[in-house]
Every structure is written in C-alpha cells, then in structure tokens.
Amino acid sequence: MTTILSPKTRTRTPSRPAALARRVLWWSVLTLSGGVERRGRLPRGGCVVVANHSSHADTAALLAALDARHTPAIGAAADYWFASPWRRRICSRLAAGFPIRRSGGGMEDLLAMADGLRAGRAVVLFPEGTRGRDGEVGSFHRGALVLAEHAGVPVVPVGIAGTDRLLPKHGRLRSTLIRVRVGAPLPASVTPQEARQAVAALHARTNAEALRDSSLRRRVAALAGSRAGLVLAFCWAFAEALSWPLMPELLLAALCAAAPSRALRLSLTALAGSLAGSVLALQLALSGAHVPAPLTTDRMRAEVRHEVSAEGAAAVRHQPWDGIPFKVYAAEAGHAGVPAAPWLREAALSRGSRTLTVGVVFAGAALLARRWRRWYGAYLALLGTGFAVGLGLVVGAWA
C-alpha cells in the first residue's frame, strides 16, 4: 500500500541547515562523479521550478545547483518513492521529496505546497511526469502551472544536461560533467506548451555546449586506455627499479590525470613492473654485477646500507618518505644478501602504498578538475617543472 504524507507533514516549516546539508552532500557526490556547474540563479522569493527529466540523477543535480536559501522541495511519484518506509525516508530526507499521486489526488498534493511557495520556497517539478528517452523533452502536464498560479509565484524553467550520460535510464553509472542552466522567470499564466519550449531550449543550449578539451589530453588518454599504455607503465617502472632515473609516479601523474578511469589498472601495472625490476636488481647485486644508477649519491647508498644491515628487507619501508630511489634499496639489499621472498613482500607493501596512492590521488584530482582539462598541456609543463625542481632538491640534500 502506498503511504502518503499528510498535508500537515508536507507543509511544515523547511529547514535551511538541512537544505544546505543536502546541497553540500549532492555537490560532493556529483563532483566526484565528474562535476556539476550552474548558469543563472533563481529569483528572490518562492517559485515553481520546471525541468526536463531524463535520469534519477536530475534530482541530485538540482539539489546540488539550487540555492539552499530557497529550501527546494522535489515532487516525487508517490506510488514509487513513497511506496515503502525505506524509500520514503531516503526520498524525504536526502532529496527533500514530497509525494504526488499519479492515480488521483495529485492536484491536492501539489496545492498543499502553496503556503511554502508564498513563504519563499522553491518547489521543483518534472512536468513530463516520467523520465524521457533519447534526450527529447516530452509534453508537460498542467499541475506545476496550476500550483504557480494558485500561489501567485513565477515559473522558472531549468535545463539539465549530462544526467542521461551519468545515470541513463536502465543503465549503469558513468563519470560525466553535469550542467544546470536556470532560465528567466515566466509568468504563472504561461501555457504548458510555452513552458515546455522554454525548458527544451535551455536543455538544447546546455547540451550543445561541448566541454572544451585538450587534443594532447585526448591522445594521452587514448594511450592510457590501450595495451601500449599498460606496457609503457610496466616497462617504465621496471627500468626505474634497475637504473632509469625517473620514477614511475611521474608517468602515472600524467596518464591518470588524462584517463582517471584507468588509474587503478595503470597503478597496479606500474607496481608489478617495480617489483619485477627490483627482484632483478636484487639478483644482479647479489651476483656482484654493477648497474649504473644516475642521480644517486654515495650518501644515499651509505644510509640505505646502514638501514638494511639493521632491519633487513623491512628497511625498504623508509623509501616512500626519504627521497632515496627505490633502485638503491634493491641494490643494497642484494649486496647484503637479503632473500628475494622477504624483499618482495616488504617491497610490495611499501612501494604499493605509494604507487597506488599517487594513482588514486591524481585520478581524483582530474575528476574534480574535469572542466579545466583543456589546460592539460599546461598541467604537464607544471608537472615536469615541479618534478625536476623536486628531484634537484632531493639529490642536492643527499649530496
């Protein structure tokens, strides 16, 4: 049986702190899933917001984008979102939802929000009544306009773009940027067709705005998503564990920022390359072979030699924090006769913690900065400069 909240419950005084908490919550969630941006603002005072509807993520997008001072309330289908206690709690608490019956009584549910509108609240409705398909804005029902006229407040059209890619109908969650465009207020006397045309125009305009990108980032992302990218990550890390002076985290910072969804796979591949290379370096040192180690110093080797003599394979736990290259630890462990098994176990823990953290952090930062990815070339320049300066400082400190 569908449970309907009483008019008294639906019209209680809204809480601005709760509205602000919901805005922060959904802004944070959508930021992690690709970002959300808004153009335009709601007018002062109460208003009925009408928006296109193509995804369950539309509600989250509006709660993240609309001002908390309007304490927005979202109209939701009573037969679905209020059909069970747990759905009712989720919808009312996390989405500020109120029930609208779709099989009789819906107009009464809408008009119960009139006092809130007169007090300055924003009531958000999806006049299509259900999620649309193929990006088209369907015909509008009259309920939202009747409510606006009854309360004496304007109708504000809003176009939402990107939610159908983030969470498509009957599809899986994907990362994408959400855009919300707030249009100019319309009089309460507007017709359903005029309101629909205003929303459709905003949606089309917002959807047509291509996210400016860098061609360099696209090429790097294509590399990161290919087998060649995995091979490059493995070989780079393998070579660095033997002799190569540039740590694999530099490569990961470039690849994971270009293709965040590939961060975990790339990081694990780089970790595997580091461990494989370190085992080879260990065996070569154990046999007495000398492998060149550019940009390392005698003081680094002396420090690591002392740590290995005191702690054995566990000495590699210092490596993520002291600035000494991984290959120095592998070589000195081999000179000290450290067995491969304990070395591999300790190296996997210490090296893995750093490599995986770098991959996840740069991927997360790339998602947060998605709208600025056209500056990827400048990011690479800053990354290379920062790495060169940092490397010079580390080598100088250990000289």
Question: What is this structure, in a nutshell?
Answer:
The chain has helices spanning 7-10, 16-32, 57-65, 78-81, 85-94, 106-111, 114-118, 143-151, 163-166, 192-208, 215-224, 227-242, 248-258, 263-286, 298-311, 319-322, 326-335, 340-368, 376-397, and strands spanning 36-39, 47-51, 73-77, 97-100, 122-125, 155-161, 178-182. The chain is an alpha/beta fold.
Considering the chains and any ligands shown, give keywords for the structure.
399 residues, alpha/beta, seven-stranded mixed sheet, 19 helices, 56% helix, 9% strand, elongated, disordered N terminus
Walk me through what this model shows.
- The longest helix is centred in the C-terminal third of the chain and has 29 residues, at 340-368.
- Residues 1-12 have low confidence and may be disordered.
- The radius of gyration is 29 Å and the shape is elongated.
- The protein has a seven-stranded mixed beta sheet with strand order 1-7-6-2-5-3-4, with helices on both faces.
- It has 19 helices and seven strands.
- By secondary structure, the protein is of the alpha/beta class.
- The chain is 56% helix and 9% strand.
- 44% of the residues are buried.
- Helix 12 (227-242) runs antiparallel to helix 13 (248-258).
- The protein starts with 6 loop residues before the first helix and ends with a helix.
